[in-house]
Amino acid sequence: PKDAAAGTYVGKLTVSADFIIDKALLSYTVADVTAFELTGPEGPISVVRDGRGWKITKPEAVRGDRNTINALLADLRDMKLSEIVRMPATDPGRYGLDRPTLVLSVTVKDGEKEHMSTLKLARGTREISYGYLSRGGSGDFIFSIPTETIAGFNPTLASLKDRALLSFDPD
After folding, report:
1. Can you tell me whether residue 38 is helix, strand or coil?
2. Nearest 5 degrees, angle CA 34-CA 81-CA 66?
3. pLDDT, tens digit (0-9, with 9 covering 90-100), for 62-109
4. CB of 115 within 8 A of CB of 87?
5. Among residues 54, 87, 84, 83, which one has the least CA distance to residue 70?
């Protein structure tokens, strides 16, 4: 019914949790990321911020390619889930998440505090894959995501290494 005096509608509105929840998997500014670790088919790769650039610390200590790593973090931040499948996250094995294709933990500085979010992705069918997200205290959940969204997301040590022959510090 319409409240004529206020010019607004009064009544009951029913919406699903998927409608209310932000579809973005992770929310951060790339400049606030201090470290991340990813585990994929090649094994674990650890990366830490080194001034304005990046340093790979595992499996070997080498300089990271700043543009490639920043683009990877931006792509990850921009990933959107399709729908929440289970909240709270229970029975991850049912969705293949006991054997994830990729595990990524991102540490972000927020003021004086740092917090970590962990994302696990598992290939599903040609159309739909599944993921698990732990946002460090704000609730864990299992979600679906289009397989095409994660199909090309497979960073390797070779792709993250700085390939420059020479580097110059402008300072």
Report:
1. strand
2. 30
3. 999 999 999 999 999 988 889 989 988 889 999 999 999 999 999 999
4. no
5. 54
What is the spatial distance between Cα 3 and Cα 22, in angstroms, rounded to a whole number? Answer: 31
* Residue 92 CB neighbours (<10 A): 19
Pairing type for strands 43-50 and 33-40 reads: antiparallel
**SS3 (DSSP) at 21:** coil
Q: Which amino acid is at 68?
A: T
CA distance 113 to 2: 47
Per-position DSSP letters for 96-159, written without gaps between them: TTTS-SEEEEEEEEETTEEEEEEEEEE--SSSEEEEEEE-SSS-EEEEEEEHHHHHT----HHH
**pTM (2 decimals)?**
0.79
Q: Which helix (H) or strand (E) holds 76?
A: helix 66-78
